[in-house]
Structure formats: structure tokens, C-alpha cells
Design a protein that fits this description.
The complex is a heterotrimer. Chain A is mainly alpha-helical. Helices cover 72% and strands 0% of the residues of chain A. Chain A contains 6 helices and no strands. In chain A, helix 2 runs antiparallel to helix 3. In chain A, 34% of the residues are buried. The termini of chain B are far apart. Chain C is mainly alpha-helical. Chain C is built from 14 helices and 2 strands, in the order H-H-H-H-H-H-H-H-E-E-H-H-H-H-H-H. A two-stranded antiparallel sheet of chain C has the order 1-2. The chains are: A mainly alpha, B mainly alpha, C mainly alpha. Chains A and B meet through helix 1, helix 2, helix 3, helix 4 and helix 5 of A and helix 1, helix 2 and helix 3 of B.
């Protein structure tokens, strides 16, 4: 009962903040609402017994990626609100249509599942120990590839940001 | 004690994904478009973790968490490179309104 | 969770918040008096005995000051930033164990204690960033951007240093980390506790974490973003009265929380350096000795914790009074190009210890130090001479006129 109430509150906060990200015309407010969304999602992850992932969500997403977004917004001075669309084109109605289609598909699929609907007893699957063991034994190759990907990302972003000395 | 059914998490994930998708199409500021892409990635993460919670054996449960870790890594690398590209475009054109920089040349 | 557990949790929260907020005026007083002592002057000594009521006077003054609101871009974010600076600092101390008994264990003894602290300290970058942005003032913006870039750069070094402590203890849980330091020193010396800082990887990790602590809390020598001589007050320029007080409090509470984590992970938490438990076991029989044993068992751990906390805070003040401020590029250079490789190397050598034992690890440390000196050489810092402008002549006293 308490779990359902908690999930309901967190879900409402998550949906409202996600809606705010899309609706808001000020990029800084969008970014802050997205931080709130990520924090709420981290709390939902804690409810799903995914402690390690939840803590990493706050550290990586809310604490590093969104700070990077805010840096770029502030450095490029893009905080001014977006101007209204001048011409009425098909973009908005089409977006809403596609969005409704995606939502209908996903929600429809969510109700025909054959999986057990009750959660399994809480296991160790969310702890760092089990995740670490799996990551370094069974999923070792993808982990090494992830390291290569991140290295490529670092090198790429440094190369992009370098000023050409001409 | 009543618990939250799996459907609830999946419906929440669907809502977040849809709002992210609508945001990517509607918004003109590429940084806000990027933020909506991150929202979609997080919705997928939520679906993965919800499924992992409702699995029966440990190996399948852990696989859900591992995949979410990989999504974190991919999102981080993508954000770094994508924001670098946006900064370069801004330096060249002084405007990053996606509708205005829609031509490849000039 | 039963009602009794809930009640104990409320009591632990009250103790944690009470301690953090009530030791704050003491820290402010200590900072001013200790800095004054280092600088061969007296410091505030007029209000109350030894000037102990000075922080009260500061609080009253700040309370009654006029709140100046800038005609800035975003009022809501301007008002939110001090709260975002204070709140993560207050809750970051929730997983720190103050002692072994029921009232003093951490507020939340979770499996991911260290990660929780890292998460809350990552959120500390937002208060500064938003304060700089919403003040609508280019110096505040520069100060805010610099400060948050510094904070996120040193978070990596902090994470690597904490990874050393986690690997040495085998768990992210802070109580397990403290209990792992309750072993005999180096495994063999029976009457001393094995504080992590007494081991080579703990020493290096502790030193790295100490430097990262100074940078995370924007304290000297890393306090360029709030340097009064460079950027007025940096990101805090447009804040007055209670919002400035919130920033001020947030800074000190963050210092306390991060010193608490260093104490827990590297300095043995609430453990004394000497292992009293064989002597305390003599008190099992009861009587006076038993009462003494129970009393010291209950009172000594928090006392040792607070002692170590204040020792670390005093070292903060000492460094503030002594070292010169680092320039921003020197600061970033140190964070990215020295602390992160050093942290990684330390972690690798700790892994060597865990797998193969202490002799290969010590050999590894010797090889690493020798390699560093071979590659970089034991150079003295080079002196650069900068040519003066012709108008700027050095002062030469005139020779005494004769007659």
C-alpha cells in the first residue's frame, strides 16, 4: 500500500517534470526540470532494488551529464526563451500524432505480457558485488568495448573543441 | 501487502519515452533536443530495470542492470561528442536554431 | 520497518542534523581565531569570552541586512541556488557512522554508502552554477562556471581515492569500511588498529583525497572562484542577507561532511589508534571495571570521531593560512593530469596487493616511484623571468644625501 502510494507520487513527479522539459521555452528551466526527472527516476530505481544503478544515475546523469548541458547553455548564452514558431507547418500535429501512436503501441504491449506480474523476492541482483562479478566475467568483452567507446568520445570531444590555429 | 505491478512501470516508461519523442520533433534548440533524447534513454533504462526486477533467475536479473550500465556509458559518450558538435556549429554560424541551419552547405 | 526502528531513525537524524548545525558557529569562530593566530594577530575577542559569541553577532547581522534582489533574468533560479547549495551538503552526511552503537550508527546504513556520498557531492555543483548564471552578471557567471568546472574535475580524483578505500575494505558500506580498519595493524601488530592511512595505498589515497577535499569545497589553495581580490565575491556577489548565509553555511557543512567521509574511510572512523578491546573485555565481570568499560565503549568512539574531524578542519585552516592560491590552469592541470593518473596507479597497486600479497605491492610502489623520477627527473621548479615594462622600475632607495 505504501509502496503503491510512493510509486504513484514519484510517477506523477516524473511525468510532470518530463512534460515541463518539453513544454518549457527556457532551456535552463528545461535542464533543471530534467535534473528533477533524473533524480525521481533514481528514486524509482531504488524502489526497484537497483541500488547501484540508482546511485550511478545520480552521479552520472544528474551530477555530470546535466552539469555539462548547463555549461554549454551558459557558455554559449543560449538561455533566452525560444521564439514562437512563425509559420504553421505540419511539425506539431505530426509530432503529436506520432507520439500518440508510440504511446498506444507501448501501452498496448505492456498489457499483453506473459511475465509474472508480481516482483520476485529481493535478491542480490542490484548490489555492486553481483553486478561487478557479472561485468568482469560474463560481460567482459562489452565492457572493454565500452571503455574503447568512452576513450573515443573523449578524444573526439577534445578534437572538436580545439580551436584551429591557422 | 500490495505491490506495484510490472505494467505500471512499463506505462510510466512509455509516457516518458513518448514525451521525449515529441520533444525531439518539436524543439528547435539542439541542446533541448539532446535533453529529450536523454529522456528517451532513461525511459528505456526504466523499462530494463523493471523487467530485471520481475525476472525469476539471478542471471537474467543482473543482465538487466548490466545493460543499463552500458546505456549510461553510451549516453555519456554521445553527450560529450554531441555537445562538442553543437559548440563548433555555434562558433561557425552564431545561431544554432535547428530550423535555420538545416542546409548542409554554407 | 517497525515503529521502534522509525523512532531510532528519527533520533539518529536529529543527532546528525543537530551536530552539523550546532558545531557550525564553533567552526566559524575557530576559523577566524586560528587564521588570526597563524597571521600573528588576535582575531575577534570582544564578544563573549574569547570572542565565542562572534558567530552569533554575525548571524544577527546577516539576518537584519537588507535583501537586495537583482533585476536579473530568472528570479526562481536565483532563489533556488542557495538551497541547492545547502541541501546536498546536509544530507551527504547521512551514511557516515559516528559510532558503533544504535544511536550513533549512520542514519542510513545502506549498501552503497560511499556512492551515496559521491552522488550528493555531485549535486553540489548545481548551487554554484545556478547562482553564477542567475545573477545576470558576467563576473558571477565566470566565477560560477570556474567553480563548478573545478568541482566536477576533482570529483573524479575523489572517486578514485574512495575506490581505494572501498577496494581495501571490500564493500561500499561505510560501517564495513570502518570495521575493516579494526584489524590489527598491517595484519600483525596486535594492539593497534589498521587505519587505512597507515598502509601505503591508504597513504597515497588519503593524500589524494585530501587534495580533492580542498578543491571540492573551494577552499584555499583552490579558492580562485571565490577569491575576493579577483572576482569580487565570485558567484556569491549578488547575494546578501540570508541567502548569503545559506551559501556560507553550505560551505561549512560540506567541509564537515567531506571531512567526515575522509575520517571514516582513511582515518579509521570512530576507532582509536590503540585497540582497547582486550582491556575492555576484562570488564565483562561487572563491577566498577565493567561500568568503566561500558562508559568508555559508549563515549570514546564519538569523541575520537569528533577529534579527527576537528583535526582535519584545523589542517584546512592551516593550509589556508599558509599556501598561495593556485591559478586556474594550474588547478585544472593538477586535477586532470596528476591526481587522476596517480589515483589510477594507486588503485592498480592495491589490486596487486589484493591478488598477490604485500611484497609485490611494495615492489610495485618502489618501481613506480623510481620510474617517476627516471621519466620526469628530480627537477627544481624552473624560474621564469618576465621582462618589466620600461615604466615599471624596481624600487631602489636613494643614497643618503651628503651635507
Amino acid at each position: 500500500m505504501a509502496e503503491r502510494a510512493l510509486f504513484f507520487i514519484l510517477a506523477i513527479v516524473a511525468i510532470v517534470s518530463a512534460g515541463g522539459v518539453v513544454v518549457s521555452r527556457n532551456p535552463v528551466r528545461s535542464a533543471l526540470l530534467l535534473v528533477l526527472n533524473f533524480f525521481t527516476l533514481a528514486l524509482i530505481y531504488f524502489m526497484l532494488s537497483a541500488q547501484f544503478i540508482g546511485a550511478l544515475q545520480v552521479i552520472v546523469y544528474a551530477g555530470a551529464i546535466m552539469v555539462l548541458f548547463l555549461f554549454v547553455i551558459m557558455l554559449l548564452n543560449l538561455g533566452s526563451p525560444e521564439a514562437e514558431l512563425q509559420e504553421r507547418d505540419l511539425k506539431r500535429p505530426l509530432a503529436y500524432l506520432i507520439g500518440f501512436g508510440i504511446l498506444a503501441t507501448l501501452v498496448g504491449q505492456a498489457f499483453v505480457l506473459l511475465l509474472p506480474m508480481t516482483p520476485q523476492p529481493p535478491s542480490d541482483a542490484g548490489t555492486a558485488k553481483v553486478i561487478g562479478q557479472a561485468l568482469f566475467t560474463q560481460w567482459a568483452y562489452p565492457m572493454l568495448l565500452m571503455g574503447v567507446l568512452l576513450t573515443v568520445g573523449v578524444i573526439g570531444s577534445i578534437l572538436l573543441a580545439r580551436r584551429r590555429v591557422s | 501487502m500490495e505491490t506495484v505491478p510490472l505494467n505500471a512501470y512499463l506505462v510510466l516508461s512509455a509516457f516518458l519515452f513518448t514525451m521525449g519523442a515529441i520533444g525531439v520533433v518539436i524543439k528547435r534548440n539542439p541542446i533541448v533536443m539532446f535533453m529529450c533524447i536523454e529522456l528517451m534513454l532513461n525511459a528505456a533504462n526504466l523499462a530494463f530495470l523493471a523487467f530485471a526486477r520481475y525476472q525469476t533467475d539471478l542471471l537474467a536479473q543482473v543482465s538487466g542492470h548490466i545493460f543499463v550500465l552500458f546505456v549510461f556509458g553510451v549516453a555519456a559518450a554521445e553527450v560529450a561528442v554531441g555537445l562538442g558538435i553543437i559548440v563548433v556549429i555555434f562558433r561557425l554560424r552564431e545561431s544554432i536554431d535547428v530550423d535555420e541551419v538545416s542546409l548542409l552547405r554554407g | 520497518m517497525t515503529l521502534a526502528d522509525f523512532g531510532w531513525a528519527i533520533a539518529r537524524i536529529a543527532i546528525m542534523l543537530g551536530f552539523l548545525l550546532s558545531v557550525l558557529p564553533l567552526l566559524i569562530w575557530l576559523e577566524r581565531r586560528a587564521l588570526a593566530w597563524f597571521q600573528c594577530r588576535i582575531g575577534p575577542n570582544r564578544l563573549g569570552p574569547f570572542g565565542l559569541l562572534q558567530p552569533m553577532a554575525d548571524a544577527v547581522k546577516l539576518f537584519f541586512k537588507e535583501e537586495i534582489v537583482p533585476a536579473s533574468a530568472d528570479r526562481f533560479i536565483w532563489a533556488l541556488a542557495p538551497a541547492l547549495s545547502l541541501f546536498p551538503a546536509l544530507v551527504a552526511a547521512a551514511t557516515i557512522p559516528w559510532g558503533p552503537n544504535r544511536l550513533l550508527t549512520p542514519v542510513a546504513d545502506v549498501d552503497i554508502g560511499v556512492l551515496y556520498f559521491l552522488a550528493m557531492s555531485s549535486l553540489a555543483a548545481y548551487g554554484v552554477l545556478l547562482a553564477g548564471w542567475s545573477s545576470n552578471n558576467k563576473y558571477s557567471l565566470l566565477g560560477g562556471l570556474r567553480s563548478s568546472a573545478q568541482v566536477i574535475s576533482y570529483e573524479l580524483g575523489m572517486g578514485l581515492a574512495l575506490a581505494t578505500a572501498v577496494l581495501a575494505a571490500g564493500s561500499f558500506r561505510m560501517t564495513t569500511i570502518v570495521e575493516a580498519q579494526a584489524q590489527p595493524l598491517w595484519g600483525v601488530v596486535p594492539f593497534l588498529h589498521n587505519w587505512l592511512i597507515f598502509t601505503p595505498w591508504g597513504l597515497v589515497g588519503g593524500a589524494l583525497f585530501f587534495v580533492c577535499m580542498l578543491a571540492e569545497t573551494n577552499r584555499a589553495p583552490f579558492d580562485l572562484p571565490e577569491a575576493e581580490s579577483e572576482l569580487v565575491a565570485g558567484y556569491q556577489t549578488e547575494y546578501s542577507s540570508m541567502k548569503f548565509a545559506a551559501f556560507f553555511m553550505g560551505e561549512y557543512v560540506a567541509i564537515l561532511a567531506i571531512c567526515g567521509v575522509m575520517t571514516t574511510c582513511f582515518l579509521g572512523g570512530y576507532l582509536a589508534p590503540i585497540n582497547w578491546s582486550p582491556i575492555q573485555a576484562l570488564g565483562e565481570g561487572g563491577g566498577l571495571w565493567g561500568v568503566l568499560a561500558t562508559l568508555t565503549g559508549a563515549l570514546m568512539p564519538p569523541l575520537w570521531f569528533v577529534l579527527k574531524l576537528f583535526g582535519l578542519f584545523f589542517s584546512f585552516l592551516w593550509i589556508r593560512a599558509t599556501l598561495l592560491r593556485l591559478r586556474y590552469d594550474q588547478l585544472m592541470n593538477l586535477g586532470w593530469r596528476f591526481l587522476i593518473p596517480a589515483g589510477l596507479l594507486n588503485l592498480a597497486l592495491l589490486t596487486v596487493y589484493v591478488i598477490w600479497g604485500w611484497i609485490p605491492a611494495l615492489i610495485g610502489y618502489a618501481v613506480a616511484i623510481a620510474a617517476y623520477f627516471l621519466v620526469f627527473g628530480a627537477r627544481r621548479p624552473e624560474r621564469r623571468t618576465v621582462a618589466l615594462l620600461p615604466e615599471a622600475q624596481p624600487y631602489r632607495p636613494k643614497e643618503a644625501q651628503s651635507g
